[in-house]
Amino acid sequence: MITFNIARWHAWAPGLASADDWLQWSRNPTLLETSDAAPDVSFLPAMQRRRLGRMARMAFAVGWPLTEGLGRVPLVFVSRHGETPRTFEILRDLAANR
Known about the structure:
Elements: H1 19-27, H2 46-49, H3 54-63, H4 84-96
Protein name: Beta-ketoacyl synthase-like N-terminal domain-containing protein
Domain Beta-ketoacyl synthase-like N-terminal: 22-97
InterPro entries: Ketoacyl_synth_N
């Protein structure tokens, strides 16, 4: 059997950014409203921020706080399908041109 411990965690959803927010939500879980909100990634340089899609912003927003106190830790966001909304838009445009 494989065992593991979770030393630290961080999560984000529209309206749920802190551990207290998540704890409160877990006591009375409800379906979250659909939102185009994206988390704050102002800790990244502006040139990097402007190129990030929503999913990448989410990944960095939850990963970055977990590196606190660890010194310099490189973070890389990789998706098998790229940025899904961009991919969908490209495919939709290709289909419309046929």
